[in-house]
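Researcher: We're teaching a course module on how sequence relates to structure. For the next exercise, students receive a sequence and then see the predicted structure as tokens, so they can try to spot secondary structure elements on their own. Here is the exercise chain.
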Amino acid sequence: LEEFNTSENGKENPGQGFASSESIDLIWGELEKLKSINDQEQAHKMVLSLLNKAQNVGLL
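Model: And here is the predicted structure for the students to work with:
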């Protein structure tokens, strides 16, 4: 199997690799925590952190 990621210019880049199931589980757990946050500023920071983590493990 070969994974394709879309670059900033919209072109696909093959071979970036797959995120581990542990990384996905960690990010999923963080997303679940996000549901319970009522403070908008805290939620915004958490979303930015999640996006960064997802990018670092190859999900984005």
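Model: If you want an answer key for the exercise: The radius of gyration is 14 Å. The mean pLDDT is 76.
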